[in-house]
Design a protein that fits this description.
The complex is a heterodimer.
Chain A lengths: L14 H27 L3 H21 L3 H26 L2 H11 L6 H20 L13 H8 L4 H21 L18
Chain B lengths: L5 H38 L15 H11 L10 H18 L18 H22 L3 H32 L4 H7 L10 H14 L11 H4 L9 H26 L10 H22 L5 H30 L4
Chain lengths: 197, 328
């Protein structure tokens, strides 16, 4: 006897399950908002990045709750697991220390909040207005999309976009290789310890 | 007892299963530290820990007692919150990944998750933060060097960790580990996906930074690397986390390439346990027999040998899958 699973069923869900999923949605959305707020107000760069990672994972949870597990997992693998690791890596290499924290504190004076807050409030107003205008009301707990459906959509109607993105990434890769080329020791690279180059 | 409906019983059974799987994974991880020391010493012609209990079997209890009563010291110059968080991330992400592993036809937490294989990769990706934050929060140059080595190594090896498994996904047509096991009821995946198996084995050792890919914690060069400042139970969590990681990777190897619970005569769970134990011993044997390569060689081996191999494997698998597909 297998227990019933929350997100694997593709048919309509029972009312209790929708309630649980809705609760998960609002909880993870609240975490995402709080963590993103901490990213903006944080003074320590590594702590801010950690909050950003938490925020990305919370957004992945939101994707899970609206029935898009593939997007959720890819968000964690690509953004939280790879891109943010590089960010943390670079910040660690820079070794900012206490001076950077003081500088950041000096930058975050109360007066400096005014203009960005107005702009953000405008954007929020537009978002809320749009949400209320759209009366269709997409509920959470709809149909779960399988990875297969997403793959067929990507390589079906959206094939041109996928190919364009691939070209762009290849171009970026070639450019990065060119910039990072080691002019002097192209032949011996990898044969000597790092310190002796 | 009107609330005790079939659904509630289902939920209770699922919760108990999850707790049991988690506890067994951690206990096996802890036991492995003893088994590894004994097995290594036997292969190296010495006795190893054989004093506590019959054949040294209580060595684990002694180690645990020692670890619990050690002073849990946080360096005054450390970044305290990250310092405490790092071991939790190390242990937590690995244990969470056990969620998607099907142990037998009736045992498993969430093993028919439609993105099960990707979930493992996500957890492996998040596991890097444990090492990164441990290295950063310790404010110690050896820890920092270890953390940098670990993150560079893990990111490089994760690329073909994922690619090496895509051949299986293309064949089975699903990311769900339960589907993958059921697909192998006649032929284990290791036969058609041999190159996928070899590269996944290498990448898996590198991701749990286990010997010979343990440059992040190389004792001779950087004095234990990222966990140099840790003591007591926090160090214990890194230590046990590594062994739980080996258990996880062995279980994955069995599920993905060696038919999971499939096997003649014996019950499914026994087959799964036997195969997993075989791979755990295999990891110990690798540690006993191979020297540690230099760090730059590890990196260039990953990018210049393993990555092209996985790409070729994926290409060949794609051709075969398309040839066998029924004409539309």
């Amino acid at each position: 006897m297998r227990p019933s699973r929350l997100t694997s069923s593709r048919c309509c869900r029972k009312p209790q399950e929708v309630l649980i999923v809705e609760f998960a949605f609002y909880l993870s959305a609240a975490v995402a908002v709080a963590a993103t707020f901490c990213v903006v107000t944080g003074v320590n760069a590594v702590h801010a990045l950690l909050n950003l990672v938490v925020s990305l994972i919370a957004i992945a949870m939101v994707y899970f709750s609206i029935g898009a597990p593939s997007a959720a997992i890819l968000e964690i693998i690509v953004y939280a697991g790879a891109i943010m690791v590089l960010f943390v890596f670079v910040v660690m290499m820079l070794n900012l220390g206490q001076a950077a924290v003081e500088q950041e504190k000096a930058w975050l004076r109360p007066g400096i909040w005014l203009w960005p807050s107005i702009m953000a409030a405008l954007l929020l107003a537009v978002l809320v207005f749009t949400l209320f205008m759209d009366s269709r009301g997409y509920g959470v707990g709809g149909v779960t999309q399988t990875p297969k459906q997403i793959g067929m959509a990507l390589f079906g109607p959206y094939i041109v976009l996928v190919e364009l993105a691939a070209f762009l990434l290849l171009g970026a890769l070639v450019a990065a290789t060119h910039v990072g080329r080691d002019e002097g020791h192209q032949d011996q690279a990898g044969d000597r310890p790092e310190g002796l180059k | 007892m009107s609330w005790l409906t079939g659904e509630v019983i289902d939920v209770i059974v699922a919760v108990i299963q999850a707790v049991v799987i988690m506890l067994v994974a951690v206990v096996i991880g802890a036991l492995m530290s003893f088994i590894e020391r004994r097995a290594l010493s036997i292969w190296q012609d010495r006795y190893g820990p054989n004093r506590v209990g019959p054949f040294g079997s209580l060595q684990l209890a002694a180690d645990m007692l020692k670890m619990f009563f050690k002073e849990d010291w946080i360096p005054p110059f450390a970044d305290k919150r990250l310092f405490i968080l790092a071991p939790m991330v190390s242990m937590g992400t690995i244990i969470l990944a056990f969620m998607v592993i099907p142990i037998s036809p009736s045992w498993g937490v969430f093993d028919n998750m439609s993105v099960g294989l990707l979930f493992f990769m996500a957890m492996a990706g998040l596991n890097v933060y444990a090492v990164l934050f441990a290295g950063y929060a310790s404010v110690n140059k050896y820890a920092l060097i270890g953390a940098m080595r670990a993150s560079a190594q893990t990111i490089s090896y994760e690329v073909f960790l994922g690619l090496s498994l895509m051949g299986i996904v293309a064949q089975v047509g699903s990311f769900s580990l339960r589907d993958i096991v059921e697909y192998q009821s006649h032929l284990w995946n290791v036969v058609p996906q041999f190159f996928g198996f070899v590269t996944f084995l290498i990448a898996a050792i590198a991701v749990v930074h286990r010997h010979p890919f343990d440059q992040p914690e190389a004792e001779q060069e950087i004095a234990d690397g990222f966990h140099i400042e840790y003591s007591g139970m926090k160090w214990g969590m890194f230590f046990v986390g590594e062994y739980v990681g080996i258990t996880l990777v062995s279980a994955l190897l069995v599920v993905l390439f060696f038919g999971g619970w499939n096997g003649p005569l014996l019950p499914p769970f026994i087959w799964f346990a036997l195969k997993t134990a075989f791979f755990m011993m295999f990891f110990i044997l690798i540690r006993a027999s191979l020297p540690r390569p230099r760090y730059d060689r590890v990196m260039s081996f990953g990018w210049k040998v393993c990555l092209p191999l996985t790409l070729l494997n994926l290409l060949a698998t794609g051709v075969v899958v398309l040839l066998n597909a029924p004409a539309q």
